[in-house]
Amino acid sequence: TTDDRERGMVRFVVEDRGVGIEPEQCRALFQRFDVREAAGRRRVGGLGLGLAYVRMVAEEHRGAVAVRAQPGCTRIAFEVPAVGS
Length: 85
Known about the structure:
The chain has 2 helices and 3 strands. By secondary structure, the protein is of the alpha+beta class. It has a single domain (about 1-80), classed as Histidine kinase-like ATPase, C-terminal domain (Heat Shock Protein 90), CATH 3.30.565. Strands 1-3-2 form a 3-stranded antiparallel beta sheet.
């Protein structure tokens, strides 16, 4: 957005209109998930580290991550300073 450019930031937004999650589950999205610990309970692939790493990379680059969630729509945005900012 124009505001992001004026602040010298680049924003990436991913929106999922699938099942969604409850707003109170947002904090847990950024925790590392041990796939071995929950074997048999998860029905999706992956290591469970994605958003934990997104937050780590964003913060290492003086950025931030935000999530807005409700059943039927989850939106995750992260921003980092633009090159040369």
